[in-house]
Hints:
By secondary structure, the chain is an alpha+beta fold. It has helices at about 10-15, 55, 90-95, 105-115, 165-180, and strands spanning about 1-10, 20-25, 40-50, 75-90, 120-135, 150, 160. It is globular.
Amino acid sequence: MTIGFKEWALVCDALGAGAQSLLLRKGGIAEGRAGFRFQHDDFLLLPTLFHEQAAQLKVPGDTPLPQAGADGTHEITLRVRVEWAEDVTDLEAAHRLAPYHLWRPELVEERFRYKDDLRLSVAFVRVERLAEPFRFPDSPKYGGCRSWVNLPDLPGGTQFIPVLDEQTHRVRELAIREALRGVAVGAAP
């Protein structure tokens, strides 16, 4: 099986467009006692269609939400490799990451404070596009309030194309690390 990470479709779009290189997560009711952790370093993004997501993201209010396939299949187009992850335990540091992700400040604070566990898991990721979309039938096992799911194996020989070139990726990483440390940074790359 291949590991899948459930993420809002609009965030997947931003990752796939090269506009975002961070994943933020707190975890939900199905994450277990320890809460969420980036347990895997290499996984596919499984876009989810939570309909309230546009209101919680920094996108225009009339942004259309991608629609589920009428044929009852999922389509995967992105693979992610976690280069580093950390728990951000300072709310101000979490807010300094605002130029690098789509979450609204209210959502950052809500998730940071969820269950009185003052932290937010952040991962800096390398995003690659699958040369050909990977499609497979939907199943109840992909549902529920959990981040990680087992997906069917990718076809042999699947090719991957980096979304960002190496220089842009490293410049963005430096800016994000400086934002976490509280170093004044210029415009978001």
